[in-house]
Amino acid sequence: xxxxxxxxxxxxxxxxxxxxxxxxxxxxxxxxxxxxxxxxxxxxxxxxxxxxxxxxxxxxxxxxxxxxxxxxxxxxxxxxxxxxxxxxxxxxxxxxxxxxxxxxxxxxxxxxxxxxxxxxxxxxxxxxxxxxxxxxxxxxxxxxxxxxxxxxxxxxxxxxxxxxxxxxxxxxxxxxxxxxxxxxxxxxxxxxxxxxxxxxxxxxxxxxxxxxxxxxxxxxxxxxxxxxxxxxxxxxxxxxxxxxxxxxxxxxxxxxxxxxxxxxxxxxxxxxxxxxxxxxxxxxxxxxxxxxxxxxxxxxxxxxxxxxxxxxxxxxxxxxxxxxxxxxxxxxxxxxxxxxxxxxxxxxx
Length: 349
Fold this sequence. Notes:
Elements: H1 2-13, E1 23-25, E2 48-50, H2 79-82, H3 86-93, H4 98-102, H5 107-112, H6 116-130, H7 134-143, H8 152-164, H9 169-178, H10 187-200, H11 205-214, H12 216-219, H13 223-236, H14 241-250, H15 259-272, H16 277-282, H17 291-304, H18 319-323, H19 327-335, H20 339-346
Antiparallel strand pairs: 1-2
Helix pairs in contact: 15-17
């Protein structure tokens, strides 16, 4: 009965009118800006004849609705190929997570076409020579299997570019290891992005290198997202340009978090906890913490009478300690209570 109800509902929703008479509908077809189809050859009298009677959704459905089905994402499983594919066997030895690769629609067909000796081996040696640890190679490939599409000479050019910008060998190793997608960006794109951060946040050369090494992913992150968070920090929260720069250098991840997330956390810390902007800028890590977690711990301290954020007075509670560590560590070192008492308190919220 439920299936019939759904089927009839879909049919009724497709009706172009609620009248019981014959109607003629001329579709409004506009040229696609993406040129998916060419509508120039469609005749002017192209139309659809629709005849129907309004029916109850509870009536039996005699029409063919086999074409109506939920969208199912294409799936793939490497298991059937592992025993026969030397490439897959070698990738497994490197620690590659085949299950993670299976989730990416375009990856399995691409990987199966590769020959380990011709297409993969030299890239693995290149990464190893850069200093990517053997135990990290599998994770690197799992995140960015398309590194094998890149010409080795181009990869070397991108490494040389970093060295020309005074990034040391250990710096280059950290950048490549922590951001597997870095090497697929051309030197021109990387140069523009480094330039953006330097000019937009008024960074020195050393500060650009510091930011890049500390959080390599931020350089290749969505620039629009970075700008939106920058606007939120400066205009909506009220931090100065210097404080915004300080937040960026101390905790770049703030600019990669969701804007709504950091705004909610900021609002509770600034308004409910009466924490001044300069103190938040001193400990920007708090902006990456979930608002409800801060609220729970702050409320617990408030109940215990241990709200004391003045560093010049006894029993000082650091803003950073409020959001750091496990609940057990928080209870023991900050609240001076038991985790059992904290869990009991949470049940009352």
